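Give me the fold.
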Amino acid sequence: MDSVKQKLALDVINKELDANGRYLVSFLTKQHGRVRLTFSYLDESHLKICCLDQDVTEIVQKEAEQQQRLQAALDAAQKASATKSEFLSRMSHEMRTPISAILGLTQLGIEETHDRESRDAFRKIHESCTYLLGLINDVLDMSRIEAAKVELHPQLLTMSHFLESLDAIIQPQCQAKGVLFTTVVEGNVATEIHVDDLRFIQIFVNVLGNAVKFTPSGGSVTLELSCRDRGNPSGWLDCAVRDTGCGMTAEFLKKAFEPFTQERIGENRSIPGTGLGLAIVKYLVTLMGGSVRLESELDKGTTVFLSFPMTWVDDYDVPVRSKEMDYSMLKGKRVLLAEDHPLNAEIAARLLEKAGMVVEQAHDGAEAVRMFREGEHGRYNAILMDMHMPVMDGIKAAKEIRSLSRPDASVPIIAVTAEDSPQERERCMHAGMNGYLSKPFDQQTLYVELCSLLQGRSA
């Protein structure tokens, strides 16, 4: 009661009334329950004070009950959201495994089949499966965005690796459709930038993928890169993706970044899509502190302007196009392939053997560790390590290999996983892995990753 007496002191009441014009004191009594006293001045002279005494026990009880109901509803909503996110993440992983097998087999079928009709059938299966994978990725990303679970994990990204990754993904789409894809670098652009590489590349894959999708055969898609304030320690990386596609109406431009929106006019009616690509791009660019805007004219094309705040890492020029990777360096190199799924293991082995590599397979992480430990020093030039395997998973297997007291324990290890997320990538890097491949991957992406690591090791 001492605290209540202090609150009811005349000087305290006067001070509160002078400051706020009204003063409330609430306290619990044994006889009357919860009591609320409301003080106010009776007139402008401030010589008389009015005190209103209320029994608010029932009101407070109802407020407490309402607060409990609201908290229960919030807890239920958060639990439902967490359950949904977990379900989508698990289902995404489960769906990626067979999709990886389908894409791998159809790619091999396209390359190894000489019959035109069979090759065309393989190509259609590949395109349909790629579209299905895109739907899975978009839905999963929107789920993460809604749950506010998208986190950025910046690290150094070389511009050459960035351009090679985009070229490996976009160039086959352009070639299949008869669209010219070019990259133009203006001025002195940093060779290394500090950014979440997974999300950064995802932004451009979405934008460039849209450009290719809505550009007819014979058209062109151009990626432009330049730097502002290059002479300062930090500045802006400015990018533009220009296409000669079908364009957008002025009305649609106003809502182009809203989820699930896609303009359905003219030839666009037959082009599939979820309408999530630009919404995801807008979210990620904003999360990085950047900006994105559109300029478009119907039947003439669209330009997407993107700007990102950057701290420059070096002072070298970036070539307009990264040089072609020499895959011949892979010939004769020995790879330890740790993969428990028989079909995925067969496909990966065939892709590696097409590059002239020698493949030895382990069916789980424990077997991979045993084969490496029992093999002579330097036997393996690289390890492809699946993350989810029985007996011992990829994370533990990588740590076991890194802990061995032998010079070749630093062998390049590439994580292979169907769970495509920054958190999974960070787990792999913390386990001592050097590279990361998200299922499904094509042979060019596989070769680029292997060549990059092996070149870096021999440099």
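Residues 315-324 have pLDDT under 50 and may be disordered.
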